[in-house]
Amino acid sequence: MTTPQMLLAIQIANGYGAQPGAWRMPGVDPSGYTDMDVLVRHAQAAERGKIQLVFLADTPALTVDLEREAPQMAVDPLVVLTSMARGTERIGLVATASTTLNEPYTIARQFKALDVASHGRAGWNAVPTSSPAAAANHGLALPPRAEKYERAHEVVQIVQALWGSWERAAWVRDVAGGRFADTSKIRPVDLQGRHVASRGPLPIPPSEQGQPVVFQAGGGGNGLEVAARYASGVYANPFSIEEGRAHRTALRAAAERVGRDPDEVELFAGFMPSVASSRRAALDRRRRLDEVVDLDQRVTYLGAMLGLRLGAEQLDEPLTDQQLAAARPSPGDPRAPHTLEIAREGWSLRDVLAHGVIDYHPVVPGTAADVADHMQQWFEAGACDGFSLAIDVHADGIDAFVDQVVPLLQERGLFHRDYEGATLRDHLGAPDQYGLDPRLAGAAHASS
Amino acid sequence: MTTPQMLLAIQIANGYGAQPGAWRMPGVDPSGYTDMDVLVRHAQAAERGKIQLVFLADTPALTVDLEREAPQMAVDPLVVLTSMARGTERIGLVATASTTLNEPYTIARQFKALDVASHGRAGWNAVPTSSPAAAANHGLALPPRAEKYERAHEVVQIVQALWGSWERAAWVRDVAGGRFADTSKIRPVDLQGRHVASRGPLPIPPSEQGQPVVFQAGGGGNGLEVAARYASGVYANPFSIEEGRAHRTALRAAAERVGRDPDEVELFAGFMPSVASSRRAALDRRRRLDEVVDLDQRVTYLGAMLGLRLGAEQLDEPLTDQQLAAARPSPGDPRAPHTLEIAREGWSLRDVLAHGVIDYHPVVPGTAADVADHMQQWFEAGACDGFSLAIDVHADGIDAFVDQVVPLLQERGLFHRDYEGATLRDHLGAPDQYGLDPRLAGAAHASS
């Protein structure tokens, strides 16, 4: 294959779906949040579609109003991914664990254990925590940003060193000779940073992919630097092709600066498809999802985005000609120009909102072809290497994507027809890595 | 039922068995350490025998010589227990997590997630860490003992408070009314101790047993105090009926002092059965297991235990009459009197060692009846409320115990014939508890 193909991740967090109202939609088990059977079925559906990986974003705090919405996180990422590992064969299993709130030995052990348990399918999204509530749950105040990133470098380096603390050939298992391991090939790491330290070794042998794949999310120069040095995949939230392209270009340049091939780092753009038989049907689906959210508040927000004073009384009306003429998209909100485009099409404000114009990812409500067209356009424009799919409602939305969108992408040569191998590293085409990347040895933040 | 019956836990750590040589025995998969299929099969075998729970002891460090022995711990307790949860229906799932090396929010979240995922079968063994290597893996030096126990109290109290941070009726899931939870019933814990703190709430609703069951292990007055206040089960390592009785009496008295019913705390005595068709066959099984251990060193140790100078040249000979006459069991080693008894029976030193006389639990190598007799004797003497079984080799040893010993115990009325309910709390007859025990509110170490 010489034509590049896109990579797909699916975000499965709470068992319901990416939209706040997902928990109460028809066909959704309202207890899915704690029911591993439900979560495993979602992973199986994604695997049927040859999706490269499941991704669980995570912040260890309550971040939503539980009166109307489900938590946005899994009960625990490790428990959910281990359950999924038991019910699937191929799909990658990736979760966030904070570099601010966890010790490197704990992260190294838990993700490597998942990696061997899943036969080489684990990935770790290494991100500092920006939530004061999450820090307070751990009895901490958030450290300054620079310190958080200094610690992040130390944590990733110590984690990767611990992962490599058994040489690949160390686990001999020589039954006749009575030799379990070759301990000359198992060594402490003895790394001491300014914030964290570990002696090692980790008591876990290499997995089928050696060690888990590192991901990164979150922007800014500091985040880019972490991604450039350690990550094979990056979760990004561009709202336009231009934003995506700019991020991807910066990422590739940063990877090159530290001596890596830029193709080693893949950018996944967050994307929310709502697949239905028509755009109208997709909007109706999303309107039903919106029943639990505070539309009064959203319509006010929509007004601010467009430089207009809007109220709930206009929810079922479109913008007037005068309003359209007076509208000034907020320069501080990258979603505003698209929002004005949708408003100009004459939709009622309720339908404008149902287009997801103020959602945290770009939204395409429409047919499978609409969704595939959007993805093709972004991918071919170089806005991303793939997508991280936030499906509105998992119970039927994953199946709809897998059964309707995936075949279109495959027909167009944009998406693989089967997994390339057995491990997450195989699925991503990520280069072999074991232990710390030797190219970064000179740049190490934690030293022995 | 008015006759008390014993409780049984089975220690499943590394996938091979409790004996260092288990990994290389016939029928054992030498890769079992990382293979969840193997570990799940062991839990299924125990569940077939109606064993109340699986217990994973844990120290996050390499504690053995990997040249000849497998690690004594699981790759990760949470990954292994979650895998077991997916492959079993009833058996309890308990693991150690250090109160010294972990933050209470992390413990609370991970064990509660396992608890909801397993439908109310999780337990947490709350112990401070005494391993300098484990502390060094976390970049720490071990704190003084008093401080470790002060922190242990704070951690358990905050964990239990977090577990109770949703009232039982908080998770309404009212689909028609659009109400996910009643947030008037979900509150922060806002606990601040001297060592740890957490704001909360935990974003996890109650499980079928409310919250995980707390266990304790490790002795001394400090350990007893933790057990008395919080534990429903205690892992102890008595080497004699007298030791067991003394520990159990002290434990029950300590529980009473803090206002609990002493029957709320069950003492599990560590025990290593090696079941075979005869005592000779059991000894041969254990001799084969001993092939990887350094018998020269053990025979020297055996000599020290008996006040004799012994060497490997005598391995296949029994003690001489002169040696038996000169033997003086070491007063500092509670295993010494039993060792001398075995030696007096005329076994070769290799067979004396095969009796497990210097193992870390009492060992009975023999028939199912021998094993059942020992258990009955200890149980009826009040040395324990049950046993924590360290089976020599899991692959066939669990089946042997379940198929041969369990029926004998059942026939004698000493062990239940089926699980009493669906949750670990049901299996243990542990009283209902949710959040912190209100009887301990006045004694709280961590305050809001």
Describe this structure in words.
Chains A, B: Belongs to the NtaA/SnaA/DszA monooxygenase family. Chains A, B: It holds the Pfam family Bac_luciferase. Chains A, B: InterPro entries: Diverse_substr_monoxygenases, Luciferase-like_dom, Luciferase-like_sf, NTA_MOA. Chains A, B: This is FMN-dependent oxidoreductase, nitrilotriacetate monooxygenase family. Chains A, B: Keywords: Flavoprotein, FMN, Monooxygenase, Oxidoreductase. Chain A has 448 residues and is α/β, with parallel strands linked by helices. The first copy, chain A, folds into two domains: 347 residues, Luciferase-like domain (TIM Barrel), CATH 3.20.20.30; 81 residues, no CATH class. In chain A, 38% of the residues lie in helices and 12% in strands. In chain A, the strands form two sheets. In chain A, strands 1-2-3-4-7-8-9-11 form an eight-stranded parallel barrel, surrounded by eight helices. A two-stranded antiparallel ribbon of chain A has the order 5-6. In chain A, helix 1 packs parallel to helix 14. The model of chain A has no long low-confidence stretch (mean pLDDT 95).
Short description:
Two copies of one chain form a homodimer. Chain A has helices spanning 36-48, 77-87, 104-117, 132-137, 145-163, 220-230, 241-257, 279-289, 295-306, 321-326, 336-344, 349-354, 368-380, 394-411, 424-428; strands spanning 7-11, 53-56, 92-98, 122-127, 191-192, 197-198, 213-217, 233-236, 266-275, 363-366, 386-389.
Most strands sheet of chain A: 8 strands, parallel, barrel
Q: What would you call the quaternary organization?
A: homodimer
Q: Radius of gyration of chain A, Cα only, in angstroms?
A: 23 Å
- How many domains comprise the coordinates of chain A? 2
Output the CATH topology of the largest domain in chain A: TIM Barrel
Overall structural class of chain A, as computed from helix and strand content, comes to: alpha/beta
CATH architecture of the largest domain in chain A: Alpha-Beta Barrel
Question: What fraction of the residues of chain A are assigned to beta strands by DSSP?
Answer: 5-15%
Can you tell me the CATH superfamily of the largest domain in chain A? Luciferase-like domain
Widest sheet, order of strands of chain A: 1-2-3-4-7-8-9-11
* Number of DSSP strand runs of chain A: 11
Order of helices and strands of chain A: EHEHEHEHHEEEHEHEHHHHHEHEHH
Main interface pair?
A-B, 70 and 70 residues
What is the end-to-end distance of chain A?
43 Å
CATH class of the largest domain in chain A, please?
Alpha Beta
The helix count of chain A comes to 15
Q: Which spans of chain A have pLDDT < 50 for at least 5 consecutive residues?
A: none
Choose one word for the global shape of chain A.
Answer: globular
Instruction: Tell me, rounded to a whole number, the average pLDDT of chain A.
Output: 95
